[in-house]
Amino acid sequence: MGRPKRNLLATAEETSTPPAELGDGQAIARVKKAEGNNLYSVELASGKESLLVELPSRFRSQIWIKNGGYVVVDTSAFEDRDNKLNGEIVNVVRDEKQWRKQAYWPSEFVKIPTYLEDSDDEESIVGKMPPAEESDSGE
Predict the structure, then answer these.
(1) What is the 3-state secondary structure (H, E, C) of 71-87?
(2) In the predicted structure, residue 6 carries a pLDDT above the cut 60
(3) Half-sphere exposure of 131 (CA within 13 A, CB side)
(4) Are 66 and 97 contacting, i.e. CB atoms less than 8 angstroms apart?
(5) CA dist 42 → 16, 27, 50, 67, 72 (Å)
(6) What pLDDT is recorded for position 118?
(7) 53 within 8 A of 73, measured Cβ to Cβ
(8) How confident is the model at residue 41 (pLDDT cuts 50, 70, 90)?
(9) Between the CA of residue 112 and those of 43, 47, 49, 68, 78, what are the distances in Å?
(10) Taken in order 85, 86, 87, 92, is the CA torsion positive or negative?
(11) Pairing of strands 50-54, 87-92
(12) Which residues does the UniProt record annotate as the domain S1-like (predicted)?
């Protein structure tokens, strides 16, 4: 049987609004790729450090994480354990526009435009017929 709807709604509400501030050991990271079952490779804002983090059970099968998306990781979550994990995902950035307004959002994570800027120098060929070829049939 699936999880109760109230749990799903509570998780969705938790991830839809950004916190007022990040806790100690927490940082925003960009998801690079899925490394296994509920394990993700993420990069911090510096771009130099790559971490392997785990998705907690409260997010599993409820919140989808896409490559290039953003998450909040807690790097102090597994300090006392000696394993390959560098941290745990504590929140998933869903409404990126709201999160970017926060003071703690890293300036290194710039917004990538969805559409490339159109160049005014090039003439658009959208909606135009292809050029007619002259026939060389010798008529």
Answers:
(1) EEEECCCCCCCCCCCCE
(2) yes
(3) 4
(4) no
(5) 20, 11, 6, 9, 10
(6) 53
(7) yes
(8) very high
(9) 17, 16, 21, 11, 32
(10) negative
(11) parallel
(12) 13-94
pTM above 0.70, yes or no: no
10 pLDDT band (50/70/90 cuts)? Answer: low
29, 41 contact by CB (below 8 A): no
Place of tokens 């991830």: 15
Task: Determine the 3-state secondary structure of 88 from DSSP.
Answer: strand
Beta bridge partners of 92: 71
Residues 6+ apart with CB under 8 A from 60: 38
- The Cβ-side half-sphere exposure at 96, using a 13 Å CA radius, reads 14
Which one of 10-19, 95-104, 108-117 scores highest in mean pLDDT?
95-104
- Reply yes or no on whether the pLDDT at 88 is more than 60: yes
Q: Which residue has the tokens 């159109």?
A: 118
Q: Would you say how long the chain is, in residues?
A: 139
pLDDT of residue 139: 54
Cα 118 to Cα 16, 19, 50, 115, 121, distances in angstroms = 33, 37, 35, 9, 9
